[in-house]
Design a protein that fits this description.
By secondary structure, this protein is an alpha/beta fold. The chain folds into two domains: 14-250, Type I PLP-dependent aspartate aminotransferase-like (Major domain) (Aspartate Aminotransferase, domain 2), CATH 3.40.640.10; 251-379, Alpha-Beta Complex (Aspartate Aminotransferase, domain 1), CATH 3.90.1150. The protein is built from 13 helices and 15 strands. The strands form three sheets. Strands 1-9-8-5-4-2-3-14 form an eight-stranded mixed beta sheet, sandwiched between helices. The protein has a four-stranded antiparallel beta sheet with strand order 10-12-15-13. The chain has a three-stranded antiparallel beta sheet with strand order 7-6-11, with no helix packed on it. The model has no long low-confidence stretch (mean pLDDT 97). The chain binds pyridoxal-5'-phosphate (PLP). Pyridoxal-5'-phosphate binds at residues 56-58, 82-83, 85-86, 134, 160, 162-163, 184, 186, 197. The site of pyridoxal-5'-phosphate (PLP) has 14 residues, from helix 3.
């Protein structure tokens, strides 16, 4: 492969921070780099949040759910179009996921749909224990609309902001929403620590509890004393050192990803049957991945034709997340929606959004796609 969907992109100072960790021998789960990374992220996000560095975004979501004392049969309402890591932790806690469709105007959970479902569930006395809306491909969900709903029905709100570090919803940074939010620093995310995550909350009690649970739930005593079970989920100090350097370039990466998106839309957006992921006026997306949809009836080709055509030239692209309610694992699971997410999956393609891709390389991607559209129209 020559042109990639999204690769790690170091800013240049990461190794200095790693060297500092080595010099002080904090090659350990705890240390000054982890503390510094957490403080720096708290400052970056603003809004008085507290942060706990963890081993992954999935671990952060697992801890957030674990702290809700879920019982078998308790429901967690979650976006259907998401990555598995944003859903599997519900199963770790023996709870039942219920899947939700997206709004066509934001491609994030539809607050109207959520509001109707909550009203019905409240009537039936079957409210979910938690709602987990997903920020998709760099776009925050409509936090300003969803937070009041969660508050009205007294349902815990845990925002999956794994894909939206650096994004904004109005004046607020993605990752500051809900009772808690999670971030991911996996290798393909906009910034990476080579694997890592963060739990974020305005309420320090969740973060203190998460630190305790993520380090094997050790009660205060000189020996190892345990009254509840925990997890080995804490972020390592060396990993956090990479994160300190990456956070310095996050805003720059957002601008670069947005510029990549803009070039795709300018060059390809006027082909018949082509649309790009919307950005509502309340959103400032990072455009983590540039997503295009292709209606084969108008374009004369499918998103699979384009994906395969690009692959022939060693250019990586990828279908959107396959909605969870259509996964074999979740056959028969409840779903609220009209299948907008299924139509997105059928027509959507994530284009190379790698910030170390050159403009010349992106120009090649655009030319190859444009040529396929031209041939598609000639056929249709
Ligand atoms: C990446 C991702 C996760 C999981 O994060 P990891 O750090 O890979 O465990 C969860 N939810 C969504 C939406 C993601 O994209």
């Amino acid at each position: 492969m020559r042109i990639w969907l999204s690769r790690p992109h170091m800013g240049g100072t990461e190794q200095d921070h790693v060297a500092e960790a080595f010099a002080s021998n904090f090659i350990a789960p705890l240390g000054p780099q982890l503390d510094a990374f957490e403080r720096k992220f708290e400052e970056y996000l603003g809004g008085g949040v507290h942060c706990a560095g963890l081993s992954s975004g999935s671990a952060a979501l697992h801890l957030a759910l674990h702290m809700q004392d879920l019982r078998p049969g308790d429901e967690v309402w979650v976006s259907s179009m998401t990555f598995a890591g944003g859903v599997f932790p519900i199963l770790y806690e023996q709870a039942t996921p219920v899947f939700f469709d997206l709004s066509p105007t934001s491609w994030t959970v539809d607050p109207d749909l959520l509001g109707e479902a909550l009203a019905d569930a409240a009537k039936g006395g079957r409210l979910p224990k938690a709602i987990v809306p997903t920020d998709l491909y760099g776009q925050s969900c409509d936090i300003a609309a969803i937070e009041p709903l969660a508050a009205q029905y007294g349902v815990r709100l845990i925002v999956d902001s794994a894909e939206s570090a650096g994004a904004r919803c109005g004046e607020r940074m993605a990752g500051t929403g809900g009772d808690m939010a999670i971030l991911s620093f996996n290798g393909n995310k906009i910034i990476t620590t080579g694997g890592g995550g963060m739990l974020v909350s305005r309420d320090s009690k969740w973060i203190e509890r998460a630190r305790f649970l993520s380090t094997q739930a050790r009660d205060p005593a000189p020996h190892y004393e345990h009254s509840v079970y925990g997890f080995n989920y804490r972020m390592g100090n060396v990993t956090a050192a990479i994160g300190i350097g990456q956070l310095d370039v996050l805003d720059q990466r957002v601008e670069q990803r947005r510029a990549i998106f803009q070039r795709y839309r300018d060059a390809l957006g006027s082909y018949p049957g082509v649309t790009f992921m919307p950005e509502p006026n309340w959103s400032h997306s990072t455009r983590w991945l540039s997503v295009m949809t292709v209606d084969p009836a108008q374009a004369g080709i499918t998103r699979e034709d384009i994906r395969a055509g690009l692959l022939e030239h060693e250019i990586e692209s990828r279908p959107m997340w396959k909605p969870m309610h259509t996964q074999p694992l979740f056959a028969g699971t409840r779903y609220f929606g009209s299948g907008f997410d299924e139509r997105l999956f059928a027509t959507g393609l994530c284009l190379p959004s790698d910030t170390s891709m050159s403009e010349v390389e992106q120009g090649e991607v655009i030319e190859r796609i444009a040529a396929m559209f031209d041939r598609g129209h000639a056929r249709s």
